[in-house]
User: Fold these one by one.
Assistant:
Number 1:
Amino acid sequence: MTITWRQALRWRLERQFLTNDAGDAAGAVEDVVDRLTAVPAWSGDPDYAVRARHTGSEPGGIDRALADGRLVKVFAFRGATHLMTPDQAATHLAVRAAGRMWERTSWQSYYGLTPQDWPSLRQAVRESLADGPLTLNEVADAVAARGRFRHLRAAIAEANTFIKPFCWQGDVCFGPDRHGRPTLMALADNRYWPGLPDLETAGRRAVKGYLSAYGPATPERLRYWLEEGLGAGRKRLTAWLAALADQIARVDLDGDAAMVLAEHADDLASTRAAPTVRLLTGHDQWVLGPGTADRRVVPAQQRPAMTRGANIVIADGVVAGTWKVAADTLTVCCSENGAAGRRPDDRALAEQAEHAAHLLGRQLDLRIDRC
């Protein structure tokens, strides 16, 4: 099957709830997060990222979903914090944990731990959270009180590198901040938490999830997502793709070999490109899913701004410029060459600026610069 990149990006826009009618299909904020696999919590505006895809959504939806357990905040892709549904977190944390980073010689030396110490340490962390969320200092104190782990107090309190394996192994997630300080809570206390699946099940689910939202995808993009993002390993990914051979369709994407789920192939083939302009937040998954190195989505001249986390203007799925808010003005800066040969239409930009102002809860004047 042969399709064009314009078709592919239009279909991807629909899958990510970014066309005019697609947002109606997202029943709740967790539906959006589930489709995207993850939403960065470390940068950008997660509330905006979700509401831009969810027709009729109201502010605070993410906070309510986190409080209810329908979303969790964990260390995931590239070791950064992400918002995920419990099911997606379980799948992708299982893939991330397979690398067993904590068993590396450098980790053993730096933290004074052997692989045999980890079961008891994990149990100590879980037991410290038995009565509910604790700040990092409180967890550190509780674990350090068990003499053999006293030397780890500072490492736990920092809430950085050393905490990540506890997320990856399904022990903890971030709880509600307390007076501006992060807390940890036990994932087992979340009524939606399914527990980590076995690695083979997790790997296949992760491949299918990526193709469902970011397909059709080239092998390079899939490797970027799972190998670079989660440390899955080339051999594992190759085995998962082989196991899914009858569920994946291969397509010719303007000369590029790409993959899509077989169940989506007919829908993809029947998709017709249509003009689409959207204003997205910085570090949106539209860009981070394929990666800023994907020039089909991020033209080379736009990559530095995307890496910095500038707010994004997309036209027909391709980054066409940036936008920002200062005082009472929303300024859009678009390349004269436009995206994929098309400069965003001023009327479409005005409509999207009005929508962005609504999402931000502000009255804003629009200024359009060509740069």
Note: The mean pLDDT is 94.
Number 2:
Amino acid sequence: MNLHKFTFREVKGRDAILYDMKKSIIPSFFPFRDDTITENYKFEYQVIIPQKASAKAKHSSLIILFHGLNERSWDKYYAWADYISNSTGKPVFLFPLAFHINRSPSSWSDPRAMQKYVEQERGDEDRERHLTFLNYALSKRVEADPYRFYLAGRESINNVCQLLEEIRRGKHPLADPNAKIDIFAYSIGGLMAQVLLMSNPCNYFTTSRLFLFCAGSLFNLMRGDSRMIMDRNSFNAMLDYYTKHFIYFKDEKRLKGDILEHAFICHIDSSLNREQRESFYRESSSRIRVISLKKDKVVPTEGIIAAMGEEHKKCLLEMDFPFSYSHENPFGPLAQKDDIQKDIWFRNVFDRVSEFLG
């Protein structure tokens, strides 16, 4: 891979985010406020550029890749990004979402550190089936305060807009100031991308194209309870919070009342601002493509159809691979006998991605 690394220091919207973080309930396993986690404010993002491109070239078009929930490394995404970059001839920005990948304390992804906490909850059979060292940190943070999910989304969007401001000012070494911005998004990164396109902050995304992979569902139709994502109790608490309480918290001043928040609320439940949501997809259907997987239990195809309405007929393709796969691992575990089939379907997916975003 032709990989470049850049340091990012959060500035845009930081004071407002910190104000809300200071009010968040602290989880028992990590007794520090979110605003004190320095890894989240100063971090590294990576850019993969085409093999034949000059390291000094400024590109007139680029693609931002958004990852899934509870990811702790880019390992799964390197092959995706490298294929897209070389197929389109465009750089792919691997930009980590708040408190994910390298934006969180290393202990959160340390099996030994997390497993000792999991062992303390062995008495609860339901949690034992779903709570693992992989999902413990996210589960307990969301369980302590579900508002963290939304706040991290706002922070991530602020960060992306700060990156684009840098590009528009001609300050990024790999991007032309007028570079076209497109997005490839997977899983929960897709929800953030949908909110970005619908709210269109600073008109950055007026002409952007979006390709969603295993993504695009209404929030209340996702099932994030997974050994690799979040335990069932925590996910149910989060679902209950956003579908029954979130939009009524005006007295607690948690609602911001801006267009970004409105776009998020439009994607919580089919009954919320349905006409506006479906109008957005009617107007934007030429700029959006989606691939879902038939056996995906986390982001089911029906959830995507519910979000997009009739426009899904223009934008959505459901696939079903002839090998074992899951939402968390779309191309299945490594197995020698399936390598050829997996390669065929990998290319099938990412040739479509590259053709649309190219």
Note: The mean pLDDT is 94.
Number 3:
Amino acid sequence: MLTNPLAKLSFEVRQYLLVTCSYWGFTLTDGALRMLVILHFHQLGYTPLQIALLFLFYEIFGVVTNLLGGWLGARLGLNRTMNMGLALQVIALAMLVVPSAMLTIPWVMAAQALSGIAKDLNKMSAKGAIKLLVPEDAPTALYRWVATLTGSKNALKGLGFFMGGLLLATVGFRGAVLAMAIAIALIWLICLVYLQQDLGKAKNKPKFTAIFSKSRAVNCLSAARLFLFAARDVWFVVALPVYLAQTLGWDAWSVGSFLAVWVMGYGLVQTQAPRLTGRTSGALPDGQTAVLWAAVLAVSPAVIALALTFNVAPAVSLLGGLLVFGFLFAVNSSLHSYLIVSYADADGVALDIGFYYMANALGRLAGTILSGWIFQAYGLAACLWFSALFVVLAALLSLLLPTQQRAGEVPPQ
């Protein structure tokens, strides 16, 4: 007699798989949509700054969503915020399945606003769920699960970039968006049926003022996260794809494929962060670990900027430097993802994680706008110098994080 193999798994593992699969599906389409919008509107003749502005509301509403989404998650439950995110993404994608004449900047910005809300509701819900599904006395397991979720998500985001370039070249913008809307709608229906109803709901209903974290560790880490992601997006979001297409002469397929491979490799490195940062020796990452890895990362964009400034094999320097930057940034990002889940208060975990990802979204917002403006005015090398500066600021803020954390210890709040 055949049996369902999933039935043999514990309830917590089944919920983890459901949350992860939802996160995976959402991330795949989110990455594809970003690449579709960048390449499609570049082909239509939009300037780098105009393309950056298309994502303005995406990032602004991401900031607001993370700030308020954590509060909603604590009051309503993470299952509801995750389902809300999936539903909003279906609506956002449907808004783009219109004739080309209707794809004006305000319309696309409105669709991107809904997509930004959806993405951050989904991410906040997924990261918060992990905290609740892993036993409190298993910090190394928590690090491993967070690294796996974060790394696999970014690998799939890279696959989404590849998928976006492929779909644009084959079925066109409207066909690609319609297919993704149908896929997300199916994932949403599955989550409505099977996701635990009260997952992440706080025992005591938090007041609205609780959206601002009272934890020094969470506040310092959030500030460091803001500058870390501004450092990535100030050159990666708009400047790099446009530079590859405009200066190096790459077509949409080549740009999408390269960025896909980069992000997939970046995600795979994230899954190995526990090995790279000493978990196997019994140590867990702390503030000193974050400072060290940020300091090393700051060197990478500075070296690439120097190579571009002095015209030292620009293509080779850029692509090779990008691989080094991706490896180092992946470890930094995974470290931060573990630390925030570790620092977050278990009762109302969505509040601390929501506040942290609000800072993350604010960093992306600043990086995205600066990416379009600085690249258009001063070029890619200037974007890279700003990237190095932002990483240095992240390292300095990490000096304020708790240190000397060992396996089994709870970091101070």
Note: The CA atoms of residues 44 and 202 lie 48 Å apart.
